[in-house]
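May I ask for whichever protein you like with its backbone structure tokens?
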Amino acid sequence: MTHRYSEGVREGAAGWRWASALRDSWRAGYGGADFRADLLAGAVVALVAVPLAMALAIASGVPPQYGLYTAVVAGTVVPLLGGSRFQVTGPTAAFVVVLAPVAARFGLGGLLTAGFLAGLLLLVMGLGRLGGLIQYIPRTVTAGFTAGIGLVIAVLQLKDFFGLQTGPLPDRFVDRLAVLAHAAPTLRPAELAVGFGTLVLLILWPKLSKRIPGPLVALVLAAGVVALAERFVPGLEIATIGRRFHFQIDGRAWDGVPGILPALRAPWSFPGPGGAPLAFNVALLEALAPSALAIALLAAIESLLSAVVADGMAGTRHNPDAELTALGVGNLLGPFFGGIPATGAIARTATNIRSGARSPLAAAFHGLFILGVLLAAAPLLGRVPMASLAALLLVVAYHMSELRHVRYLLNVAPRSDAAVLLICFGLTVVFDMVAGVSVGIVLASLLFMRRMAATTRGRTLGSETGAGASPPPGFVYYEIAGPMFFGAVDNAIDAIASVDRSVRGVLFLMDKIPVMDVSGLVALESAIRKLSAAGQLSVLVGAHGQPQALIRKSQFLSTERRMIRHCPDRTAAAQEAAAFLRAAGSATPLFPEARR
């Protein structure tokens, strides 16, 4: 099934189109078993997404129901229109540092308006086919980034898993560890028992049965056991969703998940910092533009990286342009229903895959299930223990980190690649994913350029080339092999300095140069200038494609044509050299083969 889908996406990824992932899933064959698998996977993801959506909304400075609205709208629309088969869209932790300042300064209305503007930017990026840039992120970077996120997710669950009384955790990883360590004496054995029991069941259940997803069984049993224990054990109180999250309707406080539909309103009509709606004008747009740009860039990076992670886990291939376009649509529609900015959620995407999803419908179903919770099942979901959800996310974090694959890469990769992976991992953990990915890409790019430069060589061959005609007496061959760019110039040209000054000319073999940049051209010009000053002829042999086009544009070669020739092959070059010996300084067209 996966193999057929991968082939379909490879065909579709060449051009942007709406709902590419959904179309390819159906083309590969979609039946009743696939539908049931998607339905169950969507239910599992919804159980994970509900508390995450509420918590992330609160951390961003808005009431929890707005995170749920985000998961309903964007979580349903983006998968149906996007280009990733398993991507789950919703609010994410990476957004908190960007959204919280906007909410504090502009209120809920300003945050929703900024998300709306970010949706416009994402739509332009997708239609402009900028999504393919993600393919230039190497595997060492994605492995380091994914492992780092997995560790961060795992550490975030320790508070609820052990029942620690810490208050809000700091943003920095090291500070977070210090707070958790300081709170160790507040460990609650009952919470730990619930979390540990859920964790054991999550690990063992797949070995007993694969028909029913383990998370559903574990969470339902945990909720039932906690309810019975609290009934028969006086004074026992286990933290649940209902006890942890709260919301207000018409000034009255309620516990758990609000059982109401989101209201359709213009984003700027929601309350501003003073409680009144914002004035939608140019001044507001100018004030929100920087935040909107930051949201759009972060959403694009995180969503496409999440799609890459999903591809690595499931063996599929996403359409990045379709994914960005769908993400833009989701962020355009979401604010009208109170949805805060959304992007691809790595943890929920991993849960979707591990739960047996078969198509984008699974992610869309997760949004519909959350809508059902809003309307009918809020009290039931509010009974799920937080320690059990922490255990579930610990399992998700373990699978997401791909420790076996990371260990494999560290064992087989060159030391420089292993260093990139570890640096990316460390920066992601200590700072954030943007720092880890940015530095990792820069380092990997520098390593790539160094390796490409090492493949480029320039050497004097004398009169023996291994193929073609030998040059006339007094001429030598000088072969340049490999890309001739700024990092490889020294390797390509340095050996020309060793050419004996007594020779009459140099035949530059250039048929093995696939590409040349301006730095390479300038270095070649400099070498030719020195040869010309010594009265030595330069013949460029076999330049083709992009290098030849760059040489044609060079005004320098036109001004030095008396001492420069260009020939299509070695035979023509030998003839040109012989003619030069017979009539030194005779005029010869720069590109004679172009006139034939």
User: Anything to note?
Assistant: Residues 486 and 519 are 5 Å apart (CA to CA).
